[in-house]
Structure formats: C-alpha cells, structure tokens
Amino acid sequence: MTAMLEKPTADIEADVADVLPAPIRQAITKVVGGKPVTMTPEMADAFGAELDALRERVVADLGERDATYIRRVIKAQRALEVGGRAMLFAGVLPPAWIAGTAMLAVSKILDNMEIGHNIMHGQYDWMGDPALAGRNFEWDSACPSDQWRHSHNYMHHTYTNIVDMDRDIGYGILRMSEDQRWTPYYYGNPVYAFLLMVLFQYGVALHELETERIRSGEISIADKRETLIGIWRKVRRQTLKDYVAFPLLAGPFAPWVFTGNLTANLIRNIWSYAIIFCGHFPDGTQEFTKEETANETRGMWYFRQILGSANLTGGKLFHVMSGNLSFQIEHHLFPDIPAFRHAEISQEVQEICERYGIPYNKGPLPQQFATVVRKICKLALPWN
Predict the structure, then answer these.
(1) C-alpha distances in Å from residue 65, one per residue of 112, 256, 341
(2) Cβ contact 65:341 at 8 Å
(3) Tens digits of per-residue pLDDT, 305-360?
(4) Are 89 and 44 in contact (CB under 8 A)?
(5) Phi first, then psi: what are they for 270, rounded to 5°?
(6) CA dihedral 361, 308, 198, 140 (to 10 degrees)
(7) End-to-end CA distance of the chain
(8) pTM of the full structure
(9) Which of left, alpha, beta for 337 (phi over 0: left; psi -120 to 50: alpha)?
(10) Please, are residues 114 and 72 in contact by the beta-carbon 8 Å criterion?
(11) What does the alpha-carbon distance between residue 253 and residue 274 come to, in Å, rounded to a whole number?
(12) CB-side exposure of 326: number of CA atoms within 13 Å?
C-alpha cells in the first residue's frame, strides 16, 4: 500500500494535465463610454508582459530614496499629531481649536492612507525594518489591521470588481452595480452611503463581518464571534484613546479636546470615503462576472484592474494626502510597490493602455465624486 503512494505529486499533476483539455481562453469585451473595448488572449499576453517588465524595472530600483520618503512622512505625521493634540489642550481659544483639529485630522489621514494602507500592503517589507513590516503594522483606525489585510489585500485586490466575490462593491450595504440584484432595501442607498461616509472607519471595521450574508441568513452572527471580538477590542481602544483618555488629560478643557478629536475623525472619514469611492465607482469603471474571469491570465488580470479603477488628477500635496490612491489604476496593477512611485509610472501606464485601446479613467475629484453620487442615487431604483 505504501508503494502506491510513492509517485511524486508533481508527476501525478503532470499526468492529470496530459489527460485534461487545456482551459479555453476567450476574449473579453466591455462597453466603456458607449464604445466596445476588447482584450483577446494574444493581446493579453503581450499586454501583461509589458506591465510585468515595468514592475520589474521599478522593483529593481527600490532603495534609499523610498526608505527616506516613508520615514519623512512618518516623522511629519507624528509631529502633526503631537502638535495638534497639544493645540487642542488650549482649544478654549478658537484659533487653537481650529489649528489643533486641522493638524490632528491631517495626521490621521496620513496615518491611514499614505502610511498604514501602504505599509500593510507590504510596500516596504523589502527594507527589513520591523516597524515597517506589513504583517505587524497597526493603524489609527477602528478596523483591526489583520482583518483589513484579509478583506482588502486579499479579497479586494485578488477579485477586484468581480460581482459576488469583491465585497468592496458596495461594502455589503450599498448597491453599486447593476449586476447586484435589486431589493426594496436599496431604496435607502443614498442614506446608507451618507452614513458610511461619516462613519467610514466603523464601516471598514464591520467589513469583515459580512453583514450581507448575515442578513440573507447564509450565516449567523454567532459564526462571526471571533471577528466581532477583534472589532470590539479595536473600537474600544480607539474610543478610549480619543474620547476618554485625551479629554481627561485636558482637565477643564476636556470638551474642546473631545470635540476636536470627534471633528478630526469626521474629516478623516469623509476624505477617505471620497478618495476610495472615486477610485472605484465613478462613471466608466467596470464590473466583471465570475464567468468572464474564469481561467484568467496575468494579462487579463491587469485588464480587469485597469477597467475597474479610476485615477484622480491634482497636485503633489493632493496625491500625498490621498495616500497616492489618486493613482488607483497603478495601485491596483502594482499594490506592493511604494505608492509614491505610482505618479512616476502613471504616464507610461497610460501610454501602454493607449496602444492596446484600453481607456485610462482619470479626472478631478469633484467631477469623479459627482458621478459616484449619481450612481448611488440611480442604483437605489428598481429599474436601474
């Protein structure tokens, strides 16, 4: 019996591969802006090779410039947080409250977007610095970092815009695609979207809870006990820090510190929501079916990432404040490359897309956000 198990696994897999037919590779056509965009298997191979070569060139160039950049951003973020919290202790004076709140809000935005989000993608793992290791980093957000790494790094970036697989399509509470079956629940789409915006860190925290599966009866709340415990611990920690500990330290100035922290978190939530939704849901972004992505090659995966993403135009400070997620297309193509490099390669990515007839979606924040709001309202109705 033992002898029957001695054939190496690789040989068994090779034997099976010889018997089974090769997967059928099919062209994919999507309609973008009223025009068909087609990617054939042969085009996809060449397209993927060009983008792979671009990635390899950037990775080979990583070094001190990248390390210096992220350390400077972290230093600036910490200075803004310390300065902002100190100013709020004098928040009884309106100029001090405004300045302290603004500084704290900026520090939270930098922590979440340019630092936390990017470090947890493993963008700086090559440095070997434990403080910048993606698997260990914890951020200033209600969402536990380990849960975020699963729901975002794995589920979203692997299955970007595949309906019923990418849970970032609507975050489990919104209808953001016509391919999502309409129910009367979605009449509340605009209300849910507004609440998600102002409470965004908590919406992200609840993402791993899979509330849509609980609502449908597919799973029960008891099935998510460990997830709930993790969320509760992180939310409790964040709440005690911003709304109990620092106000108590301020003594008689506690109300000004409390409201400053509350406002800074609100600003961070709204900004993060706007940047993320404008990178995924403006006019022109596409969703895909499971059937369309079966047997997907690397080139087809790149094709899906580009059509499922959109960029935001703006200046250097805007890009830093967005965590360089204003280059959402490049981020989805190369999520583990330091995000500040995405601006440098965006023109080349756009030129590659033009050669293959692939639309490169970009526009200013107000324009992209307006189309997102329009989509949210439109998809609240049953005939859309």
Answers:
(1) 22, 40, 10
(2) no
(3) 999 999 999 999 999 999 999 999 999 999 999 999 999 999 999 999 999 999 99
(4) no
(5) -65, -45
(6) -100
(7) 61
(8) 0.90
(9) beta
(10) no
(11) 32
(12) 23
